Amino acid sequence: MRAGQTDGVVVSELAQVLILRRDAAAAVPWAQKTVSLDPRSPRALTLLGDALVRTGSLDEARKAWLAASKLTEDDRIGIDRMAQAALVAADSALKERDPARAERLLRKVIAFQPENAVAHAKLGVALTRLGFAQSAAAWAKRAAELGAAKI
After folding, report:
1. What is the C-alpha separation between 135 and 13, in angstroms, rounded?
2. What is the pTM of this model?
3. In the chain, where are the structural domains located?
4. In which band, very low, low, confident or very high, does the pLDDT at 143 lie, cut at 50, 70 and 90?
5. In angstroms, rounded to a whole number, what is the distance separating the alpha carbons of residues 62 and 68?
6. What is d(CA 126, CA 100) in angstroms, rounded to the nearest whole number?
C-alpha cells in the first residue's frame, strides 16, 4: 500500500465508523474527503451516499449511489437491479444478525423505490433490532399503508 492509499483508507474508515455510530452529520465531510481522494471509487461514493441519506440529502445520496454503480438517473432497469440487489443483501444482513448493514441497504432501496412496502417493513425490523422502536413503528406503519394501497 502506498502512502496516499493509507490516508484514503484511514479517512474512509473514519467515515464508516461515524456512519455506524449514527453520526451522519460528522460522517459526510469525511466521506466527501474520501471521494476527493478517489473520485471513482465505488466504496467511497457508496459511503458518501450512506452518510448523505441519513442527513436528509436524498438527491445527493442518490447521485453518489448512481455514480458508485455507474448508472444514470434514466437507467430504470439498472436502478431496479441495483435496488433489488440491495434488498437481497439486506435480507442476508438481517439473517446474519447485522441490522446496521441491513438498515443502510434498505435506506438505499427506499431512496430509489419509495413505494416499496417490503423495504419499508424490513427497515422497521432492522430498526427494531437496533433498538429504535419509535422509528421502527413509523416505518412499519408506512409499510402497512403502502401494502394496503396495492390491494
Report:
1. 27
2. 0.88
3. 3-69, 76-149
4. very high
5. 10
6. 7
Please choose, from the candidates 86, 81, 94, 151, the residue with its C-alpha nearest in 3D space to the C-alpha of residue 122. Answer: 94
| pLDDT recorded at residue 5 | 57
CATH architecture assigned to 76-149: Alpha Horseshoe (1.25)
Counts for the chain of helices (H) and strands (E), in that order? 8, 0
Q: Please, which contacts does 15-20 make with residues 24 or more away whose CB atoms are closer than 8 Å? A: 15/47, 15/48, 15/51, 16/47, 18/51, 19/47, 19/50, 19/51, 19/54, 19/104, 20/100
- For CA atoms 53, 56, 62, 67, give the dihedral sign: negative
Cell for 4? 496516499
Q: Which of 21, 86, 31 is nearest to 57 (CA)?
A: 31
Asked if 129 contacts 106 with a C-beta cutoff of 8 angstroms, the reply is no
CATH 1.10.340.30 fits 3-69, yes or no: no
Q: What is the pLDDT of residues 46-103, one digit of tens each?
A: 999 999 999 999 999 999 999 999 999 999 999 999 999 999 999 999 999 999 999 9
Asked whether the domain spanning 76-149 has the same topology as the one spanning 3-69, the reply is yes
